[in-house]
Write a structure and sequence with these properties.
The complex is a heterodimer of chains A (about 110) and B (about 110). By secondary structure, chain A is mainly β. Chain A has strands at about 5, 10-15, 20-25, 30-35, 45-50, 55-60, 60-65, 70-75, 85-90, 100, 105-110. In chain A, strands 2, 4, 5, 9, 10 and 11 form a six-stranded mixed sheet that branches. A five-stranded antiparallel sheet of chain A has the order 1-3-8-7-6, with no helix packed on it. In chain B, strands 2, 4, 5, 6, 9, 10 and 11 form a seven-stranded mixed sheet that branches. The chains are: A mainly beta (about 110), B mainly beta (about 110).
C-alpha cells in the first residue's frame, strides 16, 4: 500500500511567499522525514520529526505531525528561487527495519 | 566528508541487455540502500544491506535484478535482462548511526 502521499502534487508561488506541503500516511510510524530533490539530482535530507513530537523547526522550515490524523505538513517560509525542487515525505517504521517509504512528492516552483 | 558516489550517471541500453550500477557509500556507513525512482514518482526501496548482509530485498524483482555488497563497502546492482519498464533513476543511499539517509546523484537508465 502507498505510504506517504503528498498534496498538492504541484505548487507554484512567488519569491518571498510561504509554501505549505502536506503528507498523509496509512500505518503507525516511528518517524517522518522530509527530503528535497533538485532536478536530476539525488535526495537531500531536510528534517526529521519523531512520532512523539508535534512540531519542529529548522531555519526556514517548520514541520508538524499529527499522528491521530496520520498527516504531516512542511512549511517553507520566505521562499527563494533556489527552493524550487521536488519535496518528498518518507515514513519509517522500525518493525520494517530502517526502510523508508516515500510518497509521490510535491513539485515546488518558486518564481523570482 | 565525501558523499555517496555512483557510476555511471547515465546509461542507455536495449531491452534484454544487461547493465550494472556501482555505488560507493560514505566511509563508515554500515547500511546501504538501492532505490528505483520512476519518473514522477517517489523512490522505491529495492534492497537494503547491513554491512555485507541483506536486510530487506522483499521488493527486488529477483528474476532479473541482483545486488551484492562484497566486503561491506561498495555495492553493485545488476539487471539482466532489462525490460522497458526498468527505465528509471537508480539511487544509492547510505546511513550511519542516525536515521538520516545520504543519497548519491543516481544513475539514469533508459531502456529502448
Amino acid at each position: 500500500s502507498q505510504q506517504g502521499e503528498e498534496d498538492p502534487q504541484a505548487l507554484s508561488i512567488q519569491e518571498g511567499e510561504n509554501a505549505t506541503m502536506n503528507c498523509s500516511y496509512k500505518t503507525s510510524i516511528n518517524n517522518l522525514q522530509w527530503y528535497r530533490q533538485n532536478s536530476g539530482r539525488g535526495l537531500v535530507h531536510l528534517i526529521l520529526i519523531r512520532s512523539n513530537e508535534r512540531e519542529k523547526h529548522s531555519g526556514r522550515l517548520r514541520v508538524t505531525l499529527d499522528t491521530s490524523k496520520k498527516s504531516s505538513s512542511l512549511l517553507i517560509t520566505a521562499s527563494r528561487a533556489a527552493d524550487t525542487a521536488s519535496y518528498f515525505c518518507a515514513t519509517l517504521k522500525e518493525t520494517s527495519g530502517s526502510r523508508l517509504t516515500f510518497g509521490e512528492g510535491t513539485q515546488l516552483t518558486v518564481n523570482p | 566528508e565525501a558523499g555517496v558516489a555512483q557510476s555511471p550517471r547515465y546509461k542507455i541500453i536495449e531491452k534484454r541487455q544487461s547493465v550494472a550500477f556501482w555505488c560507493n557509500p560514505i566511509s563508515g556507513h554500515a547500511t546501504l540502500y538501492w532505490y528505483q525512482q520512476i519518473l514522477g514518482q517517489g523512490p522505491k526501496l529495492l534492497i537494503q544491506f547491513q554491512n555485507n548482509g541483506v536486510v530487506d530485498d522483499s521488493q527486488l524483482p529477483k528474476d532479473r535484478f541482483s545486488a551484492e555488497r562484497l566486503k561491506g563497502v561498495d555495492s553493485t546492482l545488476k539487471i539482466q535482462p532489462a525490460k522497458l519498464e526498468d527505465s528509471a533513476v537508480y539511487l544509492c543511499a547510505s546511513k550511519g548511526y542516525v536515521y538520516e539517509q545520504y543519497f548519491g546523484p543516481g544513475t539514469r537508465l533508459t531502456v529502448t
